Amino acid sequence: MSSRSGRPQPGWVNPPGHYLKRDEMYSLVGLVEYPPRAKYLFSAGQAQSRFLMGLKEGKILGTRCPRCGRVYVPPRMYCEYCHTHTLEWVELPGTGVIHTAVISYIGTFRERRKEPVIVGVIQLDAPGYTPGGYEFAGLFHRLCGVTPEDVMSGRAIGMRVKPRWRPPEERRGDINDIECFEPIEG
Amino acid sequence: MRTNIFVKDRVAVVGAGLTLFRRRLQETPRELAWEAARQALESAGLTFDDIDCIVTGTAPDAFDGLHFNGEYIADAGGFGKPTVRVYVGGGTGVFVPVAAWWHAASGLCDTVLAVAEEKMSPAHPHPQGVFAYIWDPILERPLGPNLIWIFAMEMRRYMYKCGAAKETIAKVSVKNKRNALDHPAAQAAANITVEDVLNSELLVWPVNRLDISPVSDGAAAVILARENEARRITDSPVWVEGIGFTLDNTHWYNRELAFPRYVNYAARMAYKMAGIERPWKEIDVAEPYDPFDYKELHHIEGLMLARPCEAPKLLEEGWFDRSGELPTSPSGGLLGVGNPIAAAGLMKVAEIFWQLRYEAGPRQVKKPVHYGVAQAWGDLMQAGTVIVLGN
Questions:
Q1: If you count Cβ atoms within 10 Å of the first and of the last residue's Cβ in chain A, which end, N or C, has fewer?
Q2: What distance in Å separates the CA atoms of residue B235 and residue A38, rounded to the nearest whole number?
């Protein structure tokens, strides 16, 4: 079939390009290897530095918008909805519910993990702030004491959890000062 | 949201081109971009001299291992012309023709070459490692995440909220890989079953290997022109009826994951411009972004082609098949044709262009078509880009 103008239609002629099989690629003439050498040291900024210091003390801190009352965890220096300066700090109880949870069998570079890890999103309780149904204060973290069956059956979602802290002497002001979130007994 | 719909000129797509999509291609990024651009120009009967402006798109530079990769591939349209690169992660592929549209609609350029390219194969040991750079360095990277985690978390939430089974969601992968059997550029076309998807390698439950689009190299290009120029170039211009794009914040774990608000806002903007009030009735063919199978359903709902949580049911009824009421991803999508990130989104726009010209050959949908929509999504569950075309 040809187009109305009679010109070739690339939607269906043979598209250009030369496919290489894996071993063909690695035996190419002119294959250049370049491992980047770069190291980054990130400062955590105004709001998150204080949040990380809070973690070191075993506290989950957030900021509250003076205009709309939204509570931010992780804290922001400004309200994303009102563009106001969020100067008020609040301490959250740390408890919350699981919003979603998954079981990972792979690591950062797609390597198989020896043991699967369960991770998820935790919607945190923020007294004095009722989320409007879409955005909420929350963290992304590992979940422990939650079984793969809990995740697959859907029981995990909505489960009440609290942070399991590392011992104070091991805390470094890092997101890993929380070992994981675990179900609240009873 | 108010958008200025009183633009200077109507704009049409007048040509499109693609390279092969493959796991590894020998061509360099600029060679791929040039091949796609040349095809698009040939299909419109134009040459490089006829192009006024160039818009390029390529997703994270880290894949190609080159900074300003957009500038490297820009010579696909020649030098000494106004050139701009746009970037919103996976949403780039549809953002490229959106940006090309405003170049022409503003009256700045008569003809615009929009070209998108992606070469993921250089990154080793696996391109997945490069995705580590999308995560927040302070609060996310220390947890050792993999890109697939975020999708798995969203898919799990969608399954929970909508009561969608893995078996149902897998049917998107089956449909798209089957559709791709008719696509000459396709990398992952196959006749597979739901069982094949469920039995493929388990990566991050609920995501198996065949729930995901492959790693790809490839390029795509389209030519846009102002109305007078478009009518000179072709008897069958495909009009850009509406465009939309929005961004949500990077705090993806601070919001409901079951519904893509950013896609919905972008879609409302595009439909308003196009004068479309009931997209579920007025859109005839759609190319929602499908890097993962659940994402197609998620985006169908964001695009208001189905009510929230209704897409899995309609899928089961064959609503989205090529012969269905509202065919989605008739090209084969990212799951079937492949996912060279920026090029994949533009491939979807090219497919709607061919569908609306009745030039998609064996991929042509059964029903008559008047309006089509292509959409992409990008960054940390935050960028939505939408384009509505009409014939």
A1: C
A2: 54
